[in-house]
Automatic annotation (TrEMBL):
Keywords attached to this entry: Membrane, Transmembrane, Transmembrane helix
UniProt key word Transmembrane: yes
Species lineage: Bacteria, Pseudomonadati, Pseudomonadota, Gammaproteobacteria, Pseudomonadales
Protein name in the entry: Phosphopantetheine adenylyltransferase
Superkingdom, taxonomy of origin: Bacteria
Transmembrane segments: 49-65, 72-91, 97-121
Source species of the chain: Halopseudomonas salegens
């Protein structure tokens, strides 16, 4: 069971690492999100967002192999994906690229829920 939990955390970590390439610049951000970024301030914010996702993704992968960190990884990952999905759904009318991000976040939520249940179940068995 511990290997399944670790594998699911790695999966969610990878989902969070995918946008890191956005740190490379405007062209990559445009490709990732299907948006035009003409304002340099928005480019700064989006590139910083890519860095933060990288940090969260790395933490989740690290936590996959450190069981004592896993509850924090579940919480951080869950807050990340649920907040994005809630914002996307509340705003609505998003493009195809953002729809793919929402789908990836749905996968991440499911993985985190399964991992969390397995984590609790395995701790109760001990």
């Amino acid at each position: 069971m511990e290997k399944i939990v670790a594998g699911l955390l790695v999966l969610v970590g990878i989902i969070h690492l995918l946008p890191v390439s956005g740190v490379l610049g405007t062209e990559r951000l445009s490709a990732l999100y299907g948006v035009t970024l003409g304002d340099p301030n928005l480019v700064i914010l989006m590139r910083h967002r890519a860095v933060l996702f990288g940090l969260l993704g790395l933490f989740m992968v690290y936590a996959a192999f450190k069981p004592w960190l896993q509850p924090l990884a579940f919480l951080a990952g869950f807050l990340s994906v649920v907040s994005f999905m809630a914002i996307a759904w509340s705003v609505g009318d998003y493009n195809e690229a953002i729809r793919k991000v929402v789908i990836a976040d749905v996968v991440a939520v499911i993985a985190l829920c399964i991992a969390g249940v397995l984590y609790v179940f395995s701790r109760n068995q001990s």
